[in-house]
Structures are given as C-alpha cells and as structure tokens.
C-alpha cells in the first residue's frame, strides 16, 4: 500500500511538472478555445501570466450581476481546467500576476428582454495587475465574465493570457433551447442545470414548453384543478415557488424564461379537470382502418380546446393571466400548432357549425380573436408556431395577427418557411426540424408499428421510424444558416433560433446528452457565425475546439455526449477527412 502511494505521488508530481513545462512553450491559439468564439479577439503575442490566488472581481452592485460575480470568482479559482491539448503559451517574465478584474457597466437598469445589449469588451494588459471588462448592460457583463472564466486554465498556478483584447456581441439576439416538460417530467434541478449550461454557452432563452396533451404539470392559483388532475402526480408538478426559483436562476445567469402554454391543440390533459371544453379527449389517436388524414392527433394523446364553448375562454384566460403573473418575460408563447381537423369534427356542436357552411379556419379565427387581444392587453408579444398562418388545412387570415404584436416560430420546410414568414412582414424564430430538432433519429414511440419491419431486401430502413430522422449531428446544426435565401431586409426580421428537445423519448436520464454539445454548435453560429474571416465555413477548426469545450462542460457536471474517441483529440488532425464531400 505504501509503495503504491509513493508511486502515485511521484506520478502526480511528474505530471504537474510536465504540464507546467508544456504550458510554458506555446502558440497564440489557446485564447481561441473560448466557446462560442468571440467576434473579435486580438492576442498578437502569446503570453500568459499567473492568476493570483487572491484574485478578486469588483463590480457595481446589481441584484443579478452580483451573484454572478461571486459565482464566477469561485469558479475561476477552483475549476483548474486542464485542456485536452495543453495550450502552447509563453510565460511572461515582465507581467505581474493578475490580481483583479474590474467591471464597468454603463446601464445598470436595462432589463433582461429581447434586444437588450449583450456586448462587452475585455482587456487583459501585459504590464498591469488588473484586467478590465466594460459592458453596456449587466447582461453583457455576464457574457464577458464567461469569456474571462474560459481563458483561465491550469492546476497550480493558474494561468491567464495577457496582452489580450476582446470585443464581442451576438449576431442574433434570440438564442434558445426548447424543453418539453409535459410528455416526461423534469425536476427543477435538471432545469436549473440546463440553464446553467446555457449561460456557459451564451444562450439566452429557455423556451419552456410546459403543458401538452400528456400532462399539465404547472400549478396555477386560479386553476389548481388543471395540475391536480392533469399532472402525472403531486411529485411531478411545478408550483409557483418552483417557477420563481427557475426565473430568478435564469436572471442570475442571463437567461430569459419564455413560457409556452400550447393551445388550442395539444390540450388533452386539460380534459381531466374540464372535460366539457376539450374535443376528442382520451380517444384513440388514429382509429383502425382510417386514413392518416382522418386521425384525431398526430401522435398518441388527443384533445383540442373547443372554440365554440364559452367556458373555454374563461379557463384559458385564467391560465394565461396566472402564467403572465408568474413569468416576467415580455414574450408569451401561445402555441397554435398541429390543429387536427378530425379532433374538432368529432364534436357534435362543431359538426353542426360545419354543416352550416362554417369552416375549421373560421373556428381557429374565433379562437384567436378571443385570446390574442387578451394576451396583448397584458403587455405581451405573442409567439405562435408557424402553423397558425401556414397550415394547409386550418389557418387564420393574416389580418387576425398584426405583425407588431406577433412572432412566428418555424419548424417545417427549413428555410422556405422562414422565407414565407419574413416576406409577409412577421418576425421569425427559427427551429427548423430538419436541422434543430434534437429528438430526431431515435425512432418513434407508438407500439405495434409495422414500419420497423420492412423486408430485409428492401434497403429501406425508414429512418428508423423517426418522422424527422436522421439524427441531427452537431455538424448539421453548425452548418445551418438560419437566414439562408433571405434579403438583407428580411434577415433583420429573423430574431434568432432555438434547438428543441421534445420529450416523447427523453427524460432526466438522457437530458444532458441529448442537448449537449449539439446545442453548443447552434450557440456559436448564432453568436459569432459559422464562417471565418474569408467567408469559408469553419466547421473543420471548430471540431477540436468543441471537443475541448465538451470536455470542460463534463468537468462542470454537464453530461454532454462525446464527439470522437479520445485518441482523435490526442492526435489532432488524424481523424479528419481530407477529401471533398462531392
């Protein structure tokens, strides 16, 4: 036992000396491992200095920035990041140890909302013991703190680059993740960990798809029966205190929490408390011998709110009012997707309405006209899924959705639907399923499905049963240009994008690996783009950086999936292809 301890101690000492030796001989690339890559970073001479063990951060007091400052200082002094490939840097003989970071914020009052200024400038001088971070807002200061924290590495002593200047600001103001907590429940701690990882990747919108046909996990003061009867159980719901914790945590990490209460479709869970306002609830989703066009839902879990029942609007307004009170976010996502004609047609009152020359689109227009003005009256901008305007069967006339108060979120038909939305004068959030759906490629969840049993000689794997397969690789996500094919003026209407994790086949056991590091790929493209200074796609050089960033996230407790064997990382360039794809 004693000899083993001696050997272990000797090995640790050797590795530490080797690490410091390698760290003291290097090129100007180590500061380029910041993820997402900054817009501009200048480090003409690759020098580093020691970070003082008594390092401090000074900033003006702010209720959300001050906790972030304390958190980052602790992280910087205790993380001890060891890059997979030690950065080639020369230790400066003339630079004093870095003792402090001073933060200057010009506007302490700017709220966290869309279009807030997230720019920052970071200067780590060669001949001073103090670095300077300046930002227009506290939210930009948080982005700069993240960049500074990623520049620090090493065991003892900690090292930090000197003679470095960064100016940084996002290309797109809306950079988010959708998490569906209805189909499967996620405890609050999982949501907080996701928000923490988002902040590290400079993502700023947690789009919370809270409710759906499968469960209603949100406890609302005005309508407690919805969660009492529609959740999976008392241990699988979010009370107002939980929401307050998540919103506050988001603010302290520079992440907005955008609630989505999907309606009028995706509302089967409402029927547990209010069966009279939901059509086709608890019916089999695709009746035997019927055509796909005659289905009651696009997946198991039926139910749509009835636009002809006055009680629908009383309940819905209570829900919306409570949700707005719980979430300070100025955007409110009202859903509006996948309205299935068969579900509404199953209701006798709607059958009578249609028999008198009424249409399904008129039903939707009645629903929108009864809810949209109310949401706007609560000082909210309404976000809908694209279907509400673009669906082939059930859609509203654009006159019901004034662009001033409306944002449309794309999920079908890639850049073509984005073009349709912005060319009509609407702002767009891009979540194209062909590129940004993280659940794709894992098959599908209905049982007794013959598509999994094609003839062995057919050569048709059917995308493994996944409607949106194949799996969306990080390269697919990284290379997607969300403004592809748009004019300069149309591009201005693209607010940004969101990757989506729908939870039919996801829960807390796979949460981190499904999201990370693929969401990191989108984070960089929306922050600083996916092209280098010459306009060439930079996915090749992003590979090594993302590998190291994934390694760093794992060490922070984010269980991100691996991208390559460790051998590839230890042998840079050896796992690349040098052949053109065509």
What are the defining features of this structure?
single chain, 582 residues, alpha/beta, 8-stranded mixed beta sheet, 8-stranded parallel barrel, 19 helices, 17% strand
Count the beta strands. Answer: 18
Helical amount: 25-40%
The major sheet is characterized as:
8 strands, mixed
> What integer value in Å does the Rg equal?
26 Å
Spans where pLDDT lies below 50 across 5 or more residues: 1-28
User: What class, by secondary structure content?
Assistant: alpha/beta
InterPro entries: Beta_hexosaminidase_sua/sub (IPR025705), GH (IPR017853), Glyco_hydro_20_cat (IPR015883), Hex-like_dom2 (IPR029018), HEX_eukaryotic_N (IPR029019)
Protein name: Beta-hexosaminidase
GO molecular function: beta-N-acetylhexosaminidase activity
GO cellular component, one term: membrane
Structure notes:
This protein is an alpha/beta fold and about 575 residues long. Helix content is about 35%, strand content about 15%. The protein is built from 19 helices and 18 strands. The strands form 3 sheets. Strands 1, 2, 3, 4, 5, 6, 7 and 8 form an 8-stranded mixed β-sheet that branches. An 8-stranded parallel β-barrel has the order 9-10-11-14-15-16-17-18, surrounded by 5 helices. Strands 12-13 form a two-stranded antiparallel ribbon. Helix 2 packs parallel to helix 3 and helix 7 (about 310-325) packs parallel to helix 10. It is globular, with a radius of gyration of 26 Å. Residues about 1-30 have low confidence and may be disordered.
